[in-house]
């Protein structure tokens, strides 16, 4: 070893002057046995889990002189993930299956009972259906976060129309859809579906109901109808009003989802900003998290802002091709203020939680340069 940083010394309980010039096996047999790999590998040693990557060290003439080891103690993270995996399985399977058995008979009781008993059964049924719906949403978010991102060309107009139809099956609302018919983006459709569904559901649930909304002449309230200009209008005869507009950009598209609701509470955005929840400070659901996490998976971003009529959520969906990912544009119209979560306009990627420091050690020939 020709170089080792202080964190590596603390991690392996050694003194720098005692290990420099000695074989790597003197501080860790596990590291010494690892095959070179740019991919980060998890290895277990002495009750700890270490994430390790090994890369070659070359000189100015691109001649290999040794190997660089980057090591991070991820024991706490991995143990926490194991617990979360177990709890997730319990929630998704045990609780969901149990609640399904509760919801069925309770639905029958609401039809057979009368008066106060019927009202009690309806309350129980509503609570049960809420738990089942939440478990389905959690499962969708879990699949979104653990699956492989597989980019494909997506027709934004068709995609949004299908998403609106899916959400309206559960939550009635009126929608004004304005999207260029030829707008396409290369992204992962399954991740984008979860993001769009949660954005629409959030707008529909928290928007102000417009009882005066009625179908326009010649518009089918059950499906979208396009115009020669490429825009789509879709209205319904009841429910909150949601406006969706799409801007086609050179390297992606902007999707604006607006409602007439009271806006997102500042505490909810504070939680997203901090990347964690506590018993005293927590979000009202998983919807905003799903939007934020999903756009981060797509190397995109989401902005929450107040508009003249309510809340405006803007999604930046970049093209996922072989080139560099483009950050969201700075010339976003409408919306008062707002803050980007995910990839910011200056190109920085915003992550949740803390960033861990890494330990490193360089192993080169005795006559080679120290990295």
Describe this structure in words.
By secondary structure, the protein is of the alpha+beta class. It folds into three domains: 3-73, no CATH class; 77-146; 152-342, Histidine kinase-like ATPase, C-terminal domain (Heat Shock Protein 90), CATH 3.30.565. Helices cover 37% and strands 25% of the residues. It has nine helices and 15 strands. It has a six-stranded mixed β-sheet with strand order 6-10-11-13-12-14, with helices on one face. The chain has a five-stranded antiparallel β-sheet with strand order 1-15-4-3-2. A hairpin with a 2-residue loop joins strand 10 and strand 11 (252-259). Mean pLDDT is 77; it is low at 210-237, 277-283, 350-358 and 364-371.
What layout of secondary structure does this protein have?
Elements (H helix, E strand, L loop, with lengths): L2 E2 L1 H7 L3 H4 L9 H4 L4 E9 L2 E11 L5 E10 L1 H38 L2 H32 L5 E4 H13 L5 E5 L5 E4 L1 H18 L18 E2 L5 E2 L7 E9 L2 E8 L6 H9 L12 H11 L3 E6 L4 E8 L17 E7 L16 E5 L8
Parallel strand pairs: 6-10
Antiparallel strand pairs: 1-15, 2-3, 3-4, 4-15, 5-7, 8-9, 10-11, 11-13, 12-13, 12-14
Helix pairs in contact: 4-5, 6-7, 7-9
CATH level-two architecture of the largest domain: 2-Layer Sandwich
Q: What structural class do helix, strand and pairing data support? A: alpha+beta
N-to-C CA distance: 10 Å
**Helicity, as a percent range:** 25-40%
Overall structural domain count? 3
Q: Note poorly predicted spans.
A: 210-237, 277-283, 350-358, 364-371
Outline, from the CA principal axes?
globular
What's the CATH superfamily of the largest domain, by name? Histidine kinase-like ATPase, C-terminal domain
Q: Specify the oligomeric state.
A: single chain
Helices, by number, come to 9
